[in-house]
Amino acid sequence: MVVWLEANDPFPPVDEALDASSEAPGLLAAGLDLSAQRLLAAYRQGIFPWYSQGQPVLWWSPDPRMVLRPENFVVSHNFRKLLRRVLRDDAWEIRLDVDFAAVMQACAQAPRRGQDGTWITPAIVAAYRALHGTGLAHSVETFYDGERVGGLYGVAIGRMFYGESMFAKRTDASKIALAALVAFARTHAIEVIDCQQSTAHLASLGGGEIPRQAFLAHVKTAVMAPAPVWRLDKQVLSALVYGNAADKAHEVSQ
């Protein structure tokens, strides 16, 4: 049985989530409350919302959990060349939190293989905008010639980042935003980026599954760590592009 949550009810223990033998593995609870306070309580316990328009709010804690460790992020030869161009070309910019709501709307409108609609409902947008207003949700946005061409958003608590969704209107624009987030994470002791669900695309970027209990053990300490100051621009990519000063010197000389 899936627990129904009233407004003030706590979440049940995550080990009560439906298991792999069910039709909805990882489903923990349902309800109608989608306040910023409810979202914050969920993320602190490794729980996230995911549902479609017309459904109640469904809360999930899958086992295993897909995560991306920043040190495992895959930078291919061709992608490294692209990041070098981004650093050199003034038309490219990476900005933080310029228009959080616009990023969410772009993610909602992005076509997804095998999906007809979106889980980013108006209620989801309102809830995450409220969380953004508290400084606990951020958007990393990629611009080209002044136009927002890609980005991502997620929740940041302490030294933990929970990725939610990405979009791209230009090839690799969302991947560039992710690279900026990874570079920021590497320099600010954010050891895990939550990806929630396993996909081949995330695996190709270095993501992997870990047991839920291992994920929750990390979350417990990471959310209590002092939060970094969230500031970044495209120069953060230098750490990914140039492994050391000699690499950069060689690039400049070319």
Automatic annotation (TrEMBL):
Please verify whether the record's keywords include Cytoplasm.
Answer: yes
Q: Name one GO biological process term.
A: protein catabolic process
Output the Gene Ontology terms for molecular function.
leucyl-tRNA--protein transferase activity
Q: Entry's Pfam families?
A: Leu_Phe_trans (PF03588)
Under which EC number(s) is this enzyme classified? 2.3.2.6
UniProt function note: Functions in the N-end rule pathway of protein degradation where it conjugates Leu, Phe and, less efficiently, Met from aminoacyl-tRNAs to the N-termini of proteins containing an N-terminal arginine or lysine.
Q: Which NCBIfam families match?
A: aat
What's the family? Belongs to the L/F-transferase family.
What is the name attached to this protein's record?
A: Leucyl/phenylalanyl-tRNA--protein transferase
What species is this protein from? Pandoraea horticolens
Point out the gene that encodes the protein.
aat
